[in-house]
Design goal:
- The chain is built from nine helices and eleven strands.
- The protein is α+β, with helices and mostly antiparallel strands.
- It has a single domain, classed as Beta-lactamase (3-Layer(aba) Sandwich).
- The protein has a five-stranded antiparallel β-sheet with strand order 2-1-11-10-9, sandwiched between helices. A two-stranded antiparallel sheet has the order 3-6.
- Strand 10 and strand 11 form a beta hairpin.
- The longest helix has 34 residues.
- It is globular and about 60 Å long.
- It starts with a helix and ends with a helix.
- About 6% of the residues have low confidence.
Length: 313
């Protein structure tokens, strides 16, 4: 009798073990299928260009703004509406992450899992991630673009190119391909003050980035939630650092930036209720709220100017 019970127990144990193995194998197969299905590549040759010429002098007499450089373009007519020091190279901080995202999306596998390393965590104390965290690639991209997380940007760059140096080379290759002649990148996060560009190039950059559907979708969100793979699936909540998403205008794309050397920056594309669309860049504003106050003032001014020009005034 005891022998029969023993055989039954062994049969049950083997059955449970076999089922567990099958489930694990199925999960791995299913995950591998997901992991090897990146989004379709976006060809830079298909990007619609933003063509405008900078004047010899600034176009800024009608409004005074507290900033170091700025530009506004009417996307419909490609007419320059405002320009102040738009050709001067400056540190652009996390606006760099738009170019980072464009490079990442060439090899984007949304559900692949990336582990945050000590190298990713270097000089980025304010990150929502800890060393050892396991995060899906799509959640890292949201974190880099929406909440400007530097560890996320580094982890993405390292995964895509193997090293930060190689990734920076790819950023510069893409910048050259896009005609961003006054833009140079040294790393993906924007913490290096040698990541520099002009207001004019930043306008082109955000306009080209908007044409990547995933960048446009992410950067126009107000918030986003996701769960870590480890730490018992702890939930993380991201809030868009571009406060223009909470304004009366519709944000189509955008990115903020700040380090001491750059002051507060913003590159964004917005649309009003009449369907007019502008590309707006503010660089070197002295405070986080001043940046958005000046951006709103500049947007109001620009949309009024579009209306006056349409009326022939």
């Amino acid at each position: 009798m005891q022998a029969v019970k023993g055989r039954r127990l062994r049969t049950i144990i083997y059955s449970v073990f076999g089922l567990a193995v099958l489930l694990i194998l199925f999960h791995k197969f299913e995950y591998a299928e997901i992991e090897t299905m990146p989004l379709p590549l976006f060809k830079t040759s298909e990007i619609s260009r933003l063509d405008f010429d900078l004047p010899d002098s600034n176009i800024c007499r009608d409004i005074y703004l507290n900033l170091r450089a700025a530009i506004v373009i009417d996307n419909g007519s490609e007419q320059l509406l405002y320009s102040y020091n738009a050709d001067k190279m400056r540190s652009i901080a996390s606006i760099s992450k738009l170019l980072t995202a464009m490079v990442v999306l060439d090899e984007y596998m949304p559900d692949s899992v990336i582990t945050i390393t000590r190298e990713d965590a270097r000089r980025s104390r304010r990150s929502i991630f800890r060393t050892g965290d396991k995060v899906k690639m799509r959640d890292l991209l949201h974190s880099a673009l929406l909440q400007s997380d530097n560890r996320a940007a580094r982890a993405l760059a390292r995964t895509v190119s193997g090293s930060i140096e190689r990734f920076a080379e790819r950023m510069n290759e893409l910048a050259e391909e896009l005609g961003l002649d006054h833009t140079i990148m040294y790393e993906p996060s924007g913490l290096d003050d040698r990541n520099q560009s002009t207001a004019a190039d930043c306008a082109r950059l955000v306009y080209y980035a908007m044409q990547y559907p995933e960048i446009a979708r992410i950067t126009s969100l107000k918030k986003y939630e996701f769960k870590l793979i480890n730490r018992n699936g702890r939930k993380k909540r991201l809030i868009n650092t571009n406060k223009m998403v909470f304004s009366k205008y519709k944000v189509l794309a955008g990115k903020t930036g700040y380090i001491i050397e750059s002051d507060y920056c913003l590159a964004t594309i917005i649309e009003n209720g009449a369907g007019d669309q502008i590309t707006l860049v503010v660089l070197g504003s002295p405070g986080p709220q001043t940046r958005f106050r000046e951006a709103r003032r500049l947007a109001n001014y620009s949309f009024r100017k579009i209306k006056r020009l349409a009326q022939g005034n």
